[in-house]
Structures are given as C-alpha cells and as structure tokens.
Amino acid sequence: MPVCMLVRCCRAKLSVWAALCVLVLCWFYVFPGYRLPADKEIAEEVLRHGEAWRKNQTGIDLYRKLLTECCDPRRMFAVTKENSPLGKVLWYDGEFYYSHTVNNETYQLFVQDNPLTLPLKKCAVVGNGGILRHSKCGKDIDQADFIMRCNLPPLSKEYVEDVGTITHLVTANPSIIEKRFQNLLWSRKDFVDSMKVYGSSYIYMPAFSMKPGTDPSLRAYYALADSSSNLTMLFANPEFLHMVGKFWKARNVHARRLSTGLFLVSLALGLCEEVTVYGFWPFSVGLDEQPVSHHYYDNILPYKWVHAMPEEFVQLWHLHKSGTLRMRVGRCPSQDGVS
C-alpha cells in the first residue's frame, strides 16, 4: 500500500474515533451517569420528610464559604464601576465568543459598588411555580427582611394572598422585554407602569449574558431613568453567572443554563444569614397528586433542554434536609404563632 494511502486511512480512522469520543462526551453531559429520582419518588420523599426543619448554622457557613471562594457574590454579583472599570472586557457567559468592552456609554450606567447593605438577615427567594397557588404564603414571604423574585412576576390582587406584595430585588430576562413589551421600540409607558408594582426595588438584568439581550436591557435602563422611576437597575455580572454555573455543575446540575431561581438562591446563600425558598416545584403533579401549573399565573412551559429544574430541586431539597436553607412546598402555616 502506498504511503499516502496509508496516511489517509489512518487519518480517516482517527477522525472516526474523534467523532465517537465527542458523541460519548456529549451523551454523558446530557445524560449523566447518576440516576435522577422519578417525580413520584421525589414527591414521596418530600411527604415523608414533612414540615420538619432545623436550621444548621454549620451548613449555612459552609455554603457561604464555598460560594465566596468560587464566585465572590458580595463583590461580583452585579457589574459595578469597581469591578468593571473602563476598558474591561466582559465575556458573555451564555455565548463565550462574544464580549463587550466597557466604554464611556456603558460605564456610566453601572452602580459604584455593591449597593446592598450586608449582611442581609432573613431572605426569601420566591420562584414562580404553580405550587404557590392556594399556598397562603403571602404573609410569610412579606415578613422576610429581603425578598427576591424571578422574571417580573404578576403581584396583582388575585395573587397577593399566595405570593405577597413586597419586593427588594426582581430579575428581568431580556426575552420578557422583547415579548411582553415589544423590545421597547415603541411606547415605553406600559413597561414603566408595570414596574411600579415592585416599589423601589432593584431590577436585576443579565445584559451581558447573551448578545441579543444587551440592547433590550439598556433600553429598559433608559426607560426607567427617563421616567424618574424609584427602581435601580443592576446588571448581572457575567463572570459571576459563569462561576455559579460551574459551581452547580460540579454538584450534578447538568443543564445548558441554570434557572433564574437557582442563580438567586446562590446569591442568597452567599449574602444572607438565613434563606427560605418558595415556589420551587418543577413537577406537573403536586403532593396531593393534583395537577400543578408550571407558573402560579400561567402554564407556559420552558424551552426543553435549556434548564434542568428537577435536578436543581433535588440539590435544593438536600440543602433543606441538611438545614442549610428552608424550602416551603405546599401550604404555609397560618400566621398564628406556628412556624
């Protein structure tokens, strides 16, 4: 066999083996080696555990230490003038081949440094799960010292009893600006008016996570600034989001991207003395075996293959059982002195 043909044959075999290796790696990334419990098993485990919970200060301190070492939430959770000076390159955490170099226009939009008064005491992270419907958790949530909510949820009168009224920080995905408010390319009044329900809270937007989200985020900033709104815009630091993603991937949360809720729980674990989580239930059936809508306000499902919410729930449930955080699943106790 001529040498050139032998070389081509070897190259072809190497290419096939390389392709097979890539496929195997992708398989283990999407379908990890451990077995996630079935929905029914998880529900049975939650029911067995019941309402029993005991705060574990050692676990709380450990997770705060781990998150500080990996992600430094106190300094890095938001883009600030202190951590992102002029000329700094912000690499998009959702699209690693895109970046934004901080210039005079964007630099002036950043807060000086972490605006939160630390340490935060009792924090509530409120997801949007349908499990909140008829939960009667509103008063329980509003008693927290710092309340975080996900993706501009409705807080209208019909939901107040279940989700409360107070907000200190709320996330806003750029896709919401695109779909609900037509990218703010026309009237901005509807957007500004809808933000009033969040009082004088912080709006936390991932402006530098995906390139298509940058312009809508900046338009949202200017819409609020031009209307003299009481809200303060914070842009999520893509370096922080990237490191939090790596943190949870090392703990068996395999997804293209973490849910907004898990990002907020991570932030709370890094900043708060005590964390209680509400509205996290990514299953279509509740503990009473009745159907549960995806959100407390609608049943629009997320895109497949983006999040791994059952995996996230399992990890958070482990933290609940260890006393590191508290998860409220189902109805909250009545406000008669029962905790």
TrEMBL record:
Which spans are transmembrane here?
12-31
Q: In which pathway does it act?
A: Sphingolipid metabolism; Lipid metabolism; sphingolipid metabolism; Protein modification; protein glycosylation
Its Enzyme Commission number(s) read 2.4.3.8
Task: Please give the positions of the paired cysteines in each disulfide bond.
Answer: C123-C272
**What are the protein's UniProt keywords?**
Disulfide bond, Glycoprotein, Glycosyltransferase, Golgi apparatus, Lipid metabolism, Membrane, Signal-anchor, Sphingolipid metabolism, Transferase, Transmembrane, Transmembrane helix
Top enzyme class, one word, equals transferase
Which reactions is this enzyme annotated as catalysing? a ganglioside GT1b (d18:1(4E)) + CMP-N-acetyl-beta-neuraminate = a ganglioside GQ1b (d18:1(4E)) + CMP + H(+); a ganglioside GM1b (d18:1(4E)) + CMP-N-acetyl-beta-neuraminate = a ganglioside GD1c (d18:1(4E)) + CMP + H(+); a ganglioside GM3 (d18:1(4E)) + CMP-N-acetyl-beta-neuraminate = a ganglioside GD3 (d18:1(4E)) + CMP + H(+); a ganglioside GD3 + CMP-N-acetyl-beta-neuraminate = a ganglioside GT3 + CMP + H(+)
What are the subcellular locations of this protein? Golgi apparatus membrane
Gene Ontology terms for molecular function: alpha-N-acetylneuraminate alpha-2,8-sialyltransferase activity
Annotated membrane topology: Single-pass type II membrane protein
The record's Gene Ontology cellular component field reads: Golgi membrane
Biological processes per GO annotation: N-glycan processing; oligosaccharide metabolic process; sphingolipid metabolic process
Extract the PANTHER family matched here.
ALPHA-2,8-SIALYLTRANSFERASE, ALPHA-N-ACETYLNEURAMINIDE ALPHA-2,8-SIALYLTRANSFERASE
Name of the featured protein: Alpha-N-acetylneuraminide alpha-2,8-sialyltransferase
